[in-house]
Write a structure and sequence with these properties.
By secondary structure, the protein is an alpha+beta fold. The chain is built from 6 helices and 8 strands; from the N terminus they run E-H-E-E-H-E-H-E-H-E-E-H-E-H. InterPro entries: DUF1697 (IPR012545).
Amino acid sequence: MNDKGSVFVALFSGINVGGNRIVKMAELRSFFEELGFTDIATYVQSGNVVFRAKKGDAASLTKQLEAAFEQKWGFNSRIMVRDAGWFERLVKDNPYPEVAGEPTKLHAYALEREPTAEETKRLADKCTGPERFAIKGDVLYLHAPEGLGKSVFANLIPRTLKVPGTARNWRSVLALLEMAGKAGA
């Protein structure tokens, strides 16, 4: 961390979905400013925030943001905070580079923790359709050839894996990596 701080990305789960739990991105940016963060930028309405923090790591920032968010908006949103290096590794470690050009068919799930071998096997047993997945650390990569909306398997992931997480399509992953790079420059 330099004297300007480090760049992080906060991935919100469960906001602005189906007209529920509405949080305007301008309000979310103000919220981050009020907490003392800088170089704040949001990406699409599903709750992606790139920001710079002078102190703290991903785990402590996650706790701080979740508590402050619930106090301000009155409901809980699971938030996954990751540093820019995590996004760089996520893209570099993509096990499906041949489908990276189809960003709506490739997804990355930021998981709260690395799944156990038993949890991964349980999920693998459910993967019987055209989808395929790979887990690398706290990231689940999903190739859904027919798209996430038509994927029965994608709907089974949270219930079967039982490791909290939030998914982003590859277009969002690349955009957030680019935004984090610009914020870090």
